[in-house]
Amino acid sequence: MPGLLRGLARTAAVAGTATAVAGRVRRRQDNKFAQRDAETAAKRDDAYAEQTAPQTAPQTAPQAAAPPASGTSDRLEQLKTLGELKQSGVLTDAEFEAQKAKILAG
Fold first, then answer.
1. What is the DSSP string of 24-41?
2. Are residues 61 and 104 in the same domain?
3. Does one domain contain both 92 and 105?
4. CA 10, CA 93: separation in Å to the nearest integer?
5. Are 62 and 49 in the same domain?
6. Which of 54, 63, 101, 102 has the maximal Cβ count within 10 Å?
7. For the whole prediction, is pTM greater than 0.90?
8. pLDDT by residue (tens digit) across 52-71?
């Protein structure tokens, strides 16, 4: 009987130690993954901010770049500039059409 109790005690000690070690490893991994997830989220937020920032600036530029002109040659130059802005992707189709209408009406 003492050998059986000793075997049970040894098994309980090994199982308890294994559980404690596994719990510690699990906590370390959870902390590491949480930190990595936070860094990934920060990078994603920064990349999103960089993507959306250039889109806000060009919206004001086309209005200042294409004021109505009185001369025909001035209008042609403005239309050429407007076309270049559209080709480069600074202007959307709707913005291009609106500015073109302003130039031609003026």
1. HHHHHHHHHHHHHHHHHH
2. yes
3. yes
4. 78
5. no
6. 102
7. no
8. 776 544 555 555 555 544 56
